[in-house]
Specification:
Number of strands: 23
Helix content: 25-40%
CATH topology of the largest domain: Aldehyde Dehydrogenase, Chain A, domain 1
Number of domains: 2
Distance between the termini: 61 Å
Amino acid sequence: MANYDKQFINGEWVSSTGTGTIEVVNPATEQVIATVPAGTAADVDAAVAAARAAFETWSTTDVDTRAKYLRDIGGALLGKFETIAETISSENGSPKQFAALVQTGMAVGEWETFAGLIENFEWETRVGNSLVVREPIGVVGGITPWNYPLYLIACKVVPALAAGCTFVLKPSEITPLNAYLLAEAMEEAGLPAGVFNMVVGTGPDVGAAISAHPDVDMVSFTGSGRSGAEVSKAAAPTAKRVGLELGGKSANIILDDADPASVGMSAVFACYMNSGQTCQAHTRLLVPESRAQEYIDAVVAEVGNVRLVDPAADEPDIFHSLGPLASKAQQDRVRDYINKGVEEGATLLVGGSEQPEDFPTGYYVKPTVFADVTPDMTIAREEIFGPVLSILTYTDEDDAVRIANDSIYGLHGGVHSADQDRALAVARRMRTGQVDINGAPFNAAAPFGGYKQSGNTRERGQWGLEEFLETKAIQLPV
């Protein structure tokens, strides 16, 4: 059993300097399943000091050694696979199969991916009489969210350690238990003390202390735009690098030659995946006026196959099984948006804000679809982070692109067409960091990040590694 009453600092489980605790609640049962310490700025000071001391050695450790540690940590996590999946399901609400295949599987896979990447990375390049070298940026502070808790931790910790950085993690206080299992894996792999540290606590206490700390060289944050702005403000006085991976309001453009049945299946999953708690969720479905009803009918029919489920049950269909939202606060937030959609005149086709009859307990939200949504409506402009799909109509391709780009966000998007070249032409016009054509599968090796208020960073693959590197030019005599 993990030491849920401790922090992980300098290779040891230590008591927090504070006395407060935070309850971890199972969102399906609404029962407290654990308590964790409410960390303090003093805990952060200790963790950063450990990371700073360890950096001197870890940053100069050869690539082969770092790669071996990454593989050993990945192996330790693989040995805990079932426990991790069950833990994430219980604290996050993801259905059992989704928690295993997506939440856990992707997080475990990152360690081997980056081990291989650094073994083949070009760490030095000759440019004329200059030797351009890539070096670790230093001590990294990571602040991560609750929707894909372990995977989004891995997207920061793995490339940072691979680059030669040391790390101080603040996992979400809503879903911290999986991070304890990660710290255990670090121990089992024999990672040198101080290379990885974890302080559990709230954003205003632990997150703010990490962001402002003068000995933290970079803050890597995933979360809301509002919280990201606070991180940037706190980091500004020390001019540290800040990587922000923020929210989205992604548009899924359906061109007039797309097959309605294929659109229905793809569009619903792209919006409802992880109960809609996905920053890249395609929450705005743009359909042509000339065929609008066909696409609406296909979406409604597909939503009829979606089921709310007990996360602990054996539900093999990850495409149609939705668990509860991760917290009561998130459930209330999504319900408020649904009510706002009705108030502003959108047509509620499916779902609604009421507690589902089959699930009187748990933070569930009915799969919801709105039609007659206009671009100025709140549900078309703000990130909802729940299973709510807004359908908008457009007149022609130019109008579709205009509506898609009319957002403060630019994280993700989609285009559907029977003509892939036509879809690609539209995708190139979308001001967003990623675009899926005809429901193309997620590629964990491709860069992930957004334009505009969706952030300023790129995670995953080579681009994710480069986020944690400095560039030095050494001029050599001619």
